[in-house]
Amino acid sequence: MFFSFPDDAALKKERVKARQLRASQWWKRKRSSGICHYCGESFSPKELTMDHVIPISRGGRSEKFNLVPCCKACNTQKQRMLPAEWDDYMLRIGADKKNQPE
After folding, report:
1. Which of 23, 43, 72, 77 sits 20 to 30 Å CA-CA off 30?
2. Please, what are the averages of pLDDT over each run of 10 residues along the chain (102 residues)?
3. Given this model, what pLDDT does residue 9 score?
């Protein structure tokens, strides 16, 4: 899979778009379930962070299809990983796959 690495201007533009989406009703509805996309645990909606499934530093965009609510622990662990890299990481640490998205 090929991803282009964005330059500083593109990164800044995507971060601005993410901030705008974070303030939107769409995002408030998206996180209202209180469920982390990655671990499946329940949290207060305000405790969930916005994660780029494909990180902007790896060519992802701040578009609704690429944004999911997740807990701070998962967001911190995932860092710049792509979905396949995250799945491999979770398998290596022996995480329970029942809560992982397909």
Report:
1. 77
2. 69 91 95 95 96 92 96 95 92 68 47
3. 86
Q: How many CA atoms lie within 13 A of 9 on its CB side?
A: 0
Q: Which two tokens stand for residue 23?
A: 């303030």
Structure tokens at 86: 């995250």
Kindly state the tokens that stand for 12. Answer: 């800044």
HSE at residue 8, side-chain half, CA atoms within 13 A, is 0
Give φ, ψ of 35 to 5 degrees. Answer: -105, 130
Q: Class of the 8-93 domain?
A: mainly alpha
Closest-CA residue to 53 (of 45, 42, 65, 43): 65
* SS3 letters across 31-65: HCCCECCCCCCECCHHHCEEEECCCHHHCCCCCHH
Q: 8: which residues sit within 8 A by CB, 6+ positions away? A: none
